[in-house]
């Protein structure tokens, strides 16, 4: 403590980084505690003010081999999130996704489940497909707003369409054989993705 010439005192504390608050009100002599004694200001900040999530994805997931997603954190239902994604697959293909994800918090453990829709545009071949997918995974907190998730799942190919200008519609392609090949496509496809995210 340091006493200034005009009689005021300054108090220096080794715990100056902890959260402090003044209480202006009528109360009992004991007052009240707003923060815990060891709670830092960063811990006292309301993290629920964050509404959006940006994710980068790699693997063989619904977004393709590499992808980007934009998520919206739903309030007041904690854990419910909505995502729109875009990615590229090496076939090559462009993939567009829309998904709903629910993130649990079970005594600090953070598994999640996700359901969504995928539109896959195999532009080089001239085909496109409509798909549904489901995923289960786990989310690790790297820092307050940085997360790493790993998910495995399966997607179901609902329908396959061939564009008019596709090479599969060339005059030397047997239409009946093409239809048979399309019918024989495996409709269930496994997925795996790693995603790094930041909330803001």
What features would you describe in this structure?
With 200 residues, this protein is mainly beta. Helix content is 6%, strand content 52%. The longest helix is centred in the C-terminal third of the chain and has 9 residues, at 175-183. Mean pLDDT is 84; it is low at 10-16.
Write the layout of secondary structure elements.
Blueprint: E1 2-3, E2 9-10, H1 41-44, E3 52-61, E4 64-73, E5 80-89, E6 93-103, E7 111-122, E8 127-143, E9 146-162, H2 175-183, E10 188-199
Antiparallel strand pairs: 1-2, 3-4, 3-10, 4-5, 5-6, 6-7, 7-8, 8-9, 9-10
Strands, total number: 10
- Sheet with the most strands, sense and barrel status: 8 strands, antiparallel, barrel
Helix content: under 10%
Secondary structure tally, helices: 2
Shape: elongated
Radius of gyration: 27 Å
Category by helix and strand content: mainly beta
Provide mean pLDDT, rounded: 84
- SSE run: EEHEEEEEEEHE
Taking strands numbered 1, 2, ... along the chain, how are they ordered across the largest sheet?
3-4-5-6-7-8-9-10
Residue runs with pLDDT of under 50 for 5 or more positions: 10-16
- How many angstroms does the end-to-end distance come to? 40 Å
Strand-residue fraction? over 45%
Index terms:
52% strand; elongated; 200 residues; mainly beta
Structure, briefly:
The chain is mainly beta. The protein has helices at residues 41-44, 175-183; strands at 2-3, 9-10, 52-61, 64-73, 80-89, 93-103, 111-122, 127-143, 146-162, 188-199. Helix content is 6%, strand content 52%.
């Amino acid at each position: 403590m340091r006493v200034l010439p005009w009689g005021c005192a300054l108090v220096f504390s080794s715990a100056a980084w902890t959260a402090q608050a003044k209480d202006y009100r009528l109360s009992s002599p004991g007052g009240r505690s707003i923060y815990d004694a060891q709670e830092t200001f960063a811990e006292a900040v309301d993290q629920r003010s964050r509404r959006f999530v940006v994710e980068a994805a790699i693997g063989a997931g619904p977004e393709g081999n590499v992808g980007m997603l934009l998520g919206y954190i739903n309030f007041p239902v904690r854990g419910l999130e909505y995502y729109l994604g875009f990615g590229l697959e090496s076939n090559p293909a462009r993939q567009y996704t829309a998904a709903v994800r629910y993130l649990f918090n079970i005594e600090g453990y953070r598994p999640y489940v996700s359901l969504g829709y995928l539109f896959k545009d195999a532009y080089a071949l001239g085909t496109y497909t409509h798909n549904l997918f489901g995923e289960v995974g786990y989310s690790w907190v790297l820092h307050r707003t940085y997360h790493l998730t790993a998910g495995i799942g399966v997607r179901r190919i609902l329908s396959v369409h061939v564009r008019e200008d596709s090479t599969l519609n060339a005059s030397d392609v047997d239409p009946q054989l093409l239809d048979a090949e399309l019918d024989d496509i495996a409709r269930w496809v496994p997925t795996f993705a790693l995603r790094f995210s930041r909330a803001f």
